[in-house]
Amino acid sequence: MTELTLDESLDVGLRQLASVLLKKYVDNHWSEDDTEAQLLASDHVKQVVKHMLPKGLYSTNSKIRNTVAYTISAIASLDDWIELFDIIVACLAGNEDSVHGAMQVLVEFTFELEEKVKTVGPIILSEIYRIYDSEAVFTIKTRTIAV
Q: Which residue in 15, 4, 115 sits closest to 66, CA to CA?
């Protein structure tokens, strides 16, 4: 698979529009339940999106992180994404932006997949507590989301 990146040098408005359009694409074309078979995203497209999308959790723009978090949650509710919790844990161990992005995924995720969250809760709770308890490292906004 070609290495694709999210270009932070592009205009933020253009990046926000792209993230909203991707969210709409996932909502409308990810699952057979939602669309006709000829409009369904191919397995290759799904893999590319799953590979690239978590990089948006590291964006310096909170609106992009929020849209990416919603899109990740939507994909997780429609598809088995085995690597997702490893990605979230890696983001929780990252910088302020990735921690905030991961926390947004967890917030969205709990609304969509309450049962799945219960099974991985013990893994994630220790990281969330570490974030909450790290006043010198994380902003009050990120620590509030942890709560």
A: 15
